[in-house]
TrEMBL record:
Pfam families noted in UniProt: Pirin, Pirin_C
InterPro entries the record matches: Pirin (IPR012093), Pirin_C_dom (IPR008778), Pirin_N_dom (IPR003829), RmlC-like_jellyroll (IPR014710), RmlC_Cupin_sf (IPR011051)
SUPFAM superfamilies: RmlC-like cupins (SSF51182)
UniProt source species: Candidatus Methanoperedens nitratireducens
Name listed for the protein in its UniProt record: Pirin
Length: 280
C-alpha cells in the first residue's frame, strides 16, 4: 500500500546558536509527531552575517545529531578530543549519549553556506550510552542510479543491496539524498509502522500516487503509514531527503540541547553541567 501524505510543514525562520538564521521544519512544538525524530534545521544563506557566529560550545545528552553539508563547510570540535571540518557532501553523525560538549562553526565558500541538521532521539535504554562521533566523507557515501533518471545517495540504511556507511543506530533509521530528473518516478519501500518524511531541497514534485498537489523547496512532507512511497518529479529536477525510523513511543522531556524522558533527568543533566560533572 502506498503511503499517503499526512501533512506538509513549511520551514519557519528561527534564530539559533550565537545568532544563526535558519529555517526549522519541525522541532519542540511538533513532538511527538515525527517520533523518533526531534528536529530538522536548514541553515542556508549567501550572507555570512547569517551564519558566521555559528554554534559555540554547548552540551548535548540523550540524542544524536546528524549534520549534512551541501555548500561551504562546518568545523567541529568536542569534549572527546575530536576535531575536523566537514565539506560539501560530508556527514557528521554524533551520538551524545550520556553527555558531550561540542561546537559547530559554519564556514562559507565565496559567501555560500548550506547545511542541514537532524536530531534523532535515543530510547531510555540508550540515553546514557557511551558518546561517539562519526565523520563520513562524501567519497564513503555510495550512490545508486536508476535508469539514469534517479540518483540515490545512501547515508544510512539501504537501497537494494547497497548499504550506507552509518550503521548500528538504535532507531534503525534510513537517510537518503535523492535527485530525480524532470517527470521521473521513484518508488521505495519503508517498513510498516516506521515514521517517514521527505524534505525538499531543490525543485518540486508530487509525494503520493494521486499527484494532486505539488510540493516545493523548504517544505517537509510527513507520510502516513504504509508499505512504500511513490514520488514523481515536477517539470524541473527534484532533490529531497527521505528519512524514516522506528518510533520510540516514550515520554519526551526536552529543554534546549538536552532530551531525556523525565523532568528529573533534565534537572540532573543541567545541574551536572553547572557543577562540572556532566562529562563522565
Amino acid at each position: 500500500m502506498n503511503r499517503k501524505i499526512e501533512s506538509i510543514l513549511k520551514g519557519k525562520p528561527t534564530l539559533e546558536g550565537a545568532g544563526v538564521h535558519l529555517k526549522r521544519s519541525f522541532g519542540f512544538n511538533e513532538v511527538p509527531l515525527l517520533d523518533p525524530f526531534l528536529l530538522l534545521d536548514d541553515f542556508h544563506s549567501d550572507n555570512p552575517a547569517d551564519y558566521i557566529a555559528g554554534f559555540p560550545w554547548h552540551p548535548h545528552r540523550g540524542i544524536e545529531t546528524v549534520t549534512y553539508v551541501l555548500e561551504g563547510a562546518v568545523e567541529h570540535g568536542d569534549s572527546m578530543g575530536n576535531k575536523g571540518v566537514i565539506q560539501p557532501g560530508d556527514v557528521q553523525w554524533m551520538t551524545a549519549g550520556r553527555g558531550i560538549i561540542h561546537q559547530e562553526m559554519p564556514e562559507g565558500h565565496n559567501g555560500h553556506m548550506w547545511g542541514l541538521q537532524l536530531w534523532v532521539n535515543l530510547p531510555s535504554t540508550h540515553k546514557m550510552m557511551e558518546p561517539r562521533y562519526r565523520e563520513v566523507k562524501k567519497s564513503q557515501i555510495p550512490e545508486v542510479m536508476i535508469d539514469k533518471n534517479v540518483s540515490i545517495r545512501i547515508i544510512c540504511g539501504e537501497f537494494g543491496n547497497t548499504k550506507g556507511p552509518v550503521q548500528d543506530i538504535v532507531v534503525d533509521p534510513e537517510y537518503l539524498d535523492i535527485t530525480m530528473a524532470p517527470g521521473s518516478e521513484f518508488e521505495h519501500g519503508i517498513k510498516r509502522g516506521y515514521r517517514a518524511f521527505a524534505y525538499v531541497i531543490e525543485g518540486s514534485g508530487f509525494f503520493d500516487a494521486d499527484k494532486k498537489k505539488s510540493t516545493g523547496i523548504e517544505h517537509l512532507v510527513i507520510f502516513k503509514d504504509g508499505d512504500n512511497v511513490k514520488i514523481t518529479a515536477g517539470e524541473k529536477s527534484l532533490r529531497f531527503l527521505l528519512v524514516s525510523g522506528k518510533p520510540l513511543g516514550e515520554p519526551v522531556a526536552w529543554a534546549g540541547p538536552i532530551v531525556m524522558n523525565t523532568q528529573e533527568e533534565l534537572y540532573i543533566a543541567f545541574e551536572e553541567y553547572r557543577n562540572g560533572t556532566f562529562i563522565k
